[in-house]
Amino acid sequence: MADSPSFSHILVLVANRDATSLTPVDIQAARDLVRGDAPVTLSEGEAVEIACNAPATWGQPDIGAMREVFAGRGLDVLVTPRANRRKRLLVADMDSTIVSCETLDDIAAHAGIGEKIADITRRSMNGEIEFESALRERVALLRGLPVSLLERAWRDVKLNTGAVELVRTMRANGARTALVSGGFTFFTSRVSALCGFDENHANTLLDADGHLTGAVGQPILGPDAKLAHLRRLAAAGGLDMRDAMATGDGANDLAMLRVAGAGIAFHAKPAVRREITSQVNHTTLRTLLFAQGYRADQFVTA
């Protein structure tokens, strides 16, 4: 990690390895823009960190403008305070964050009502309609469908790149990790096991006689519950919110993203990107480890 004591912040520049790689020109441009220290390589051609002062001291460009400068190259830029950089708590959303899909939409697709439910999901995740009522509306459309559809939808679920490394590296370094989703326990329990989360929390799809009832267990796990889990876990560990990292993509993640010391919008909806400064828009979940100063050779995969 960068160790220049005169700088209060760290800028991390990360490339999407599937599309491009960092060049000396990219790195020097970032260093010049923030008048930063010598770069430190975290992953050759993929990630570097540069010690710098707080964004408020940069003048122009600000972090948003810097993000745009590098967006065309498929690069992400994150700036974090040096203090409390290594987080001791991770709270992560599941759908479109830890996994690449929206699991409720996948259930609906197998039932032949995919577009109808997906439209409600899009509006809910962008904050256009309230989460709890949108969830009830979508689940009601599943009434009478066989529970076996969940198994079919599970076969479509794929972990996003870096999910296992993120969870297992943080756990190996003493962090508590929790998967907290507005989705369903049928999926979170399995995703949690694959990644190695300490715990998982989600909603429950109710069924009877092998068919979905069209109802969801109460209380619904929505934005307030996600924030409550973040606060509970921090308190249980004797942690300050500065010790916590939260990540998600939808409007129902905003409450926890606002409060966590590192609230990172991951390939997020427009409403989330408008509010949350720390964003991963081009790269993978590996970037959340680089933001904490982990080198790629320190990542844990098993």
TrEMBL record:
Its EC number is 3.1.3.3. One of its GO terms (cellular component) is cytoplasm. The active site is at D93, D95. It comes from the Bacteria. The keyword Oxidoreductase does not apply. One of its GO terms (biological process) is L-serine biosynthetic process. Its cofactor is Mg(2+). InterPro entries: HAD-like_SerB, HAD-like_sf, HAD_sf, PSP. GO terms for molecular function: L-phosphoserine phosphatase activity; magnesium ion binding. Pathway: Amino-acid biosynthesis; L-serine biosynthesis; L-serine from 3-phospho-D-glycerate: step 3/3. Keywords: Amino-acid biosynthesis, Hydrolase, Magnesium, Metal-binding, Serine biosynthesis. The keyword Hydrolase applies. It catalyses: O-phospho-D-serine + H2O = D-serine + phosphate; O-phospho-L-serine + H2O = L-serine + phosphate. Belongs to the HAD-like hydrolase superfamily. SerB family. This is Phosphoserine phosphatase.
